[in-house]
Design goal:
globular, DNA polymerase, domain 1, Alpha-Beta Plaits, DNA-binding
DNA sequence: TCTGGGGTCCTAGGACCC
DNA sequence: TCTGGGGTCCTAGGACCC
């Protein structure tokens, strides 16, 4: 895999053959860190790490100056600071990232309406139908980079290829501040020498498993009989990887995708053993999930909890409801029942709630209606006065809260 | 070194139905 | 009599991605 510090950067010549290479992958360089630099230009040129200042936090993003010291995303903050003690640590500002992310995708849509966001800071563009004003795929990529730089001050690296997967690899190789075209005819030659970890879907575990079978490069994987691969990896993954390794990736650029789950989880600074405390936190998380379901116009059929213990062992429990819900109160009841059913548990490091099996909102018939109305009132007040303006009394510690609304007669 | 939070997809076993 | 097979749903866990 690329080292992420830009040392194996690869960009293509002006005259690279982009015939048929109609997929672009655009990726903002060191996005969160770059946004922080927009707001604090005096930090330019210094190693900057974005992350929370908390004992269990990890690196959210790092500038290239910090990456040169071996600092990378998802690394524990303590490790990062040992490697780069003079780094400047900046707390994340979600709302700023969302703002610039929206600007970025708007600019992408000036190139083509066929834009598929992937997370907050990258996306695919299908430029096969781009008009004369935009030009060839390579010209489209160059124009996109120019517009992003002019209109945001951020830098996008762009990969241009015949498929999503190869375009994504190309943008990764082009970083930072680069543009790489992989000519369609050279796709397989480009792929073969790369390590298997470069394949989409190969992480630490699968990489190890493959190397254990003497499969280290994409070329070696492409040459492995499918049956051998299936035995090692299971049917679905084996087939996907075998195709990707031979440059086969027919996935189209999709502009919209339905959400499949909505969840919220939190890690405690110190493990929590007190069941009452766990229930209170579940309340907060459940109310948040409910609010997000209502905003999305969804109801959930299944509620799941996730609990991680001090030793990092993690369990999940889920339950399908008699009736779908978008009400925090009902989500909380289900979550607490699941937690109780788990029995005696060790102290908890992380707890989370997730709403699954989402569908369009359904009208509920029972007591939830009253809860739903109460929670909608809170939604509206929050919309008017801002987050944090309203906090149901039952969320306050030790209050026990008022009694819930009564079941309709 | 000691591991966040938002997600997606896959596997495997058991229940249940025909 | 001691035992089929396919399909679907549910649940738990795991790998992976950004």
């Amino acid at each position: 895999m690329s080292r992420q510090d830009g040392r194996d950067r690869l960009v293509s010549a002006e005259d690279a053959d982009d015939t048929g290479a109609t997929i672009l992958h655009a990726d903002l360089d060191a996005f969160f860190a770059s946004v922080e630099l927009l707001d604090r230009p005096e930090l330019r040129g210094r190693p900057v790490i974005v992350g929370r200042d908390s004992p269990r936090s990890v690196v959210t993003a790092a500038t290239y100056e910090a990456r040169r010291y071996g600092v990378n995303s998802a690394m524990p903050m303590a490790v990062a600071l040992r490697r780069c003690p003079h780094a400047v640590v900046v707390e994340p500002h979600r709302d700023r990232y969302e703002h610039w992310s929206a600007r970025f995708f708007e600019i992408c849509r000036t190139i083509t309406p066929l834009v598929e966001p992937v997370g907050i800071d990258e996306g695919f563009l299908d430029v096969s139908g781009a008009g004369r004003a935009i030009g060839s795929p390579r010209a489209a990529a160059a124009l996109l980079r120019e517009r992003v730089r002019e209109r945001t001050g951020l830098v996008a690296s762009v990969g241009v290829a015949g498929s999503k997967f190869v375009a994504k690899l190309a943008s990764g190789r082009a970083k930072p501040d680069g543009l790489l075209v992989v000519p369609v005819a050279e796709t397989v030659a480009f792929l073969r020498p790369l390590p298997v970890d470069a394949l989409w879907g190969v992480g630490g575990r699968t990489g190890e498993r493959l190397r254990g079978r003497a499969i280290s490069t994409i070329g070696e994987l492409a040459d492995t009989p499918p049956a051998t691969l299936r035995a090692a990896l299971g049917d679905a993954l084996a087939q996907r990887l075998h195709e990707l390794a031979r440059g086969i990736d027919p996935r189209p650029v999709v502009t919209e995708r339905a959400e499949r789950s909505i969840g919220r989880e939190t890690t405690f600074e110190e493990d929590v053993a007190d069941p009452a405390e766990l229930r209170r936190v579940l309340r907060r998380l459940s109310d948040d999930v409910g609010a997000r379901l209502r905003r999305a116009g969804c109801s959930a059929r299944t509620i799941a909890i996730k609990v991680r213990f001090g030793d990092f062992r993690t369990i999940s429990r889920s339950r399908t409801l008699a009736e779908p819900t978008d009400v925090g109160h009902a989500i909380h009841e289900a979550a607490v029942a699941l937690l109780d059913a788990a029995g005696e548990i060790p102290p908890v490091r992380l707890i989370g709630v997730r709403a699954e099996q989402l569908g369009p909102r359904t009208v509920s018939l029972w007591e939830e209606d009253a809860w739903r109305e109460a929670e909608q009132a809170v939604d509206q007040a929050r919309d008017r006065f801002g987050r944090g303006a309203v906090r149901p009394a039952r969320l306050l510690p030790d209050s026990g809260g008022p009694r819930g609304p009564r079941r309709p007669a």
